[in-house]
Fold this sequence. Notes:
- The structure holds two protein chains of two kinds.
- Chain A is globular, with a radius of gyration of 19 Å.
- In chain A, helix 7 links the parallel strand 9 and strand 10.
- In chain A, the strands form four sheets. In chain A, strands 3-10-9 form a three-stranded parallel β-sheet.
- Chain A is of the alpha/beta class.
- Chain B is mainly beta.
- Chain B is built from one helix and five strands, in the order E-E-H-E-E-E.
- Chains A and B meet through strand 4, strand 5 and helix 3 of A and strand 3 and strand 5 of B.
- Strand 4 of chain A pairs antiparallel with strand 5 of chain B, so a sheet runs across the interface.
Amino acid sequence: MDDPLLIAGEKFTSRLIMGTGGAPSMDVLDRALAASGTELTTVAMRRVDPAAQGSVLALLADRGIRVLPNTAGCYTATEAVRVAAMAREALGTSWVKLEVIADERTLLPDPVELLLAAEQLVADGFTVLPYTNDDPVLARRLEQAGCAAVMPLGAPIGSGLGIRNPHNIELIVESAGVPVVLDAGIGTASDAAIAMELGCAAVLLATSVTRARSPELMAEAMRLAVAAGRQAFLAGRVPRRHLALASSPPVG
Amino acid sequence: MQVKINGRPHQLAGGGSLAQAVALLTRAPSGVAAAVNGTVVRRAAWDTTALAEGDDVEVLTAVQGG
Lengths: 252, 66
């Protein structure tokens, strides 16, 4: 089925965007990314560690996976804009997963700083993919600010709690003119399928794969779940009914 | 002269360049960005960017995350 994901005019066959945090080793990460079928994967920007072994960039380049730098760890718009500028210079991409978090305990986005950073980065020519709250109004404001996608959370980062407010995700999907990517909170394959059934254009996840007992196996499960959820969305689910509807002919 | 590179003090010959400061940490030919006192400096300009006493240099690269 030819059903590409389009973000800012770029075409992706896979609707699963992966993160790379939490994997026990580069080798495990490499096999998990391969099993996931992902074509777009996030990395964080940190101070160079002269003692670091292996490079996540080399791994992604070998797999032909497009790199999506994030601004993880930034608490203000000013910090996030600076990290995005560093990422653009280091990686040669103007795409950025914009994260501006409010506090360490919840890692929830700070909506005010997020919107401010998004406006500045769009003005500076970035393709901005903001990690946002599951707030339809904020999603609309981010789209109006020129973001190329909106990426509402299902639940806090790393919590694995699934999609806590599917109604809000549906509302965001209904009114968004840019792709909606369910980002954060996915715990297992059924969560990813539900995100796609709700009409999300893609799913972004890391922890549920990288910290699974078998990351490679879970990555494949996620690939299948995202594809299945997408097909179910396109096929259109039957309406929920209060009472039974016989599936066999009642007479004859 | 003394400059700060990624938060730690380093001695650099007077008139040292940003390229020399970065080389103290990494020889990676790509995937690295540097800023001096909060301003990003393009890689092409590292050689010609002279550092001054007390400059604050940040050198970042991509790591697993997100």
